[in-house]
UniProtKB/TrEMBL annotation:
This is MBL fold metallo-hydrolase. Gene3D superfamilies: Ribonuclease Z/Hydroxyacylglutathione hydrolase-like. InterPro entries: Metallo-B-lactamas, RibonucZ/Hydroxyglut_hydro. Residues 37-226 form the Metallo-beta-lactamase domain. Pfam families: Lactamase_B_2. SMART domains: Lactamase_B. It comes from Aquirufa esocilacus.
């Protein structure tokens, strides 16, 4: 099954755009598409609402997008810009009167336990996040009847998971994808892939590297995310892209 709707909750790199104290043309742009919170998406599929990553902007993002329900949260990796907002699942605990299931690799779960120790203890203080944690790795898994294919990608030396739901896939924080993992990203309607900027970076694809990968994988449509202010102005970079590639922006909704 493929998603019916995907909402980009955030499309910015770890610092977000504008960056604190930066006066560059992107950080001071009045184009709303140049304002990027930390990366996250909502995937609506089979009547379920999944969130991928809960960065530091999670609360603001779900309020802004009008997210009323979360059935599960999937984590790509343990970096703070993808995990820092987990505490705010409390709002959904309260609204739904239920725990929220989290799906992550073992090392991500270990980090969540360190950083949110109060949510995992024996005698929990009332009002802490109510979560159920499920370990995943490279094997396909099913969440509430929805089949999900993880894709292992490399983020410098760190292993990160991308996720494929039917003909839609989301890959953030990567600068290398092994051939056998690339094979899991073929025949897609939509591929979301990260590209930080135009110049080389130790742990993220450049725009050119992402475009090469898109040309190899041939999704019908591709969207770029995890964007730095160094990428340039949205409107100008967009003009340079092939017709089937777009820069994502915060608030972009794909109806599939
Ligand atoms: Zn990141
Ligand atoms: Zn800037
Ligand atoms: Zn990262």
């Amino acid at each position: 099954m493929s998603p019916s709707k995907v909402t980009f909750l955030g499309t910015g790199t770890s610092q977000g755009i504008p960056m604190i104290a930066c006066n560059c043309s992107v950080c001071t742009s009045t184009d709303e598409r140049d304002k990027r919170l930390r990366v996250s998406i909502q995937v609506e599929i089979g009547g379920k609402s999944f969130i991928i990553d809960t960065g530091p902007d999670f609360r603001q993002q779900v309020l802004r997008a009008g997210v009323k329900r979360v059935d599960a949260i999937l984590y790509t990796h343990e970096h703070k810009d993808h995990t820092a907002g987990m505490d705010d699942v409390r709002g959904f605990n309260y609204h739904q009167q239920s725990t929220i299931p989290l799906y992550a690799r073992a090392q991500v779960i270990e980090q969540l336990k360190r950083e949110f120790a109060y949510a995992f203890g024996e005698n929990k203080y009332p009002g802490v996040p109510e979560i159920d944690v499920y370990e995943i790795d490279g094997q396909p898994f099913t969440v509430q009847g929805i089949d999900i294919q993880p894709i292992f990608v490399k983020h410098y030396y760190l292993d990160v998971l991308g996720f494929r739901f039917g003909d839609f896939a989301y890959v953030t924080d990567a600068n290398f994808i092994a051939p056998e993992e690339q094979d899991k990203l073929r025949n897609l309607d939509v591929l979301v892939i990260n590209a930080l900027r135009k110049t080389t970076h130790i742990s993220h694809f450049t725009l050119a590297e992402a475009l090469d990968l898109i040309a190899e994988l041939k999704p019908k449509q591709a969207y770029i995310t995890h964007i730095s202010h160094q990428m340039g102005l949205h409107a100008e970079v967009q003009k340079e892209l092939p017709s089937n590639v777009s820069l994502a922006y915060d608030g972009l909704v794909l109806t599939l």
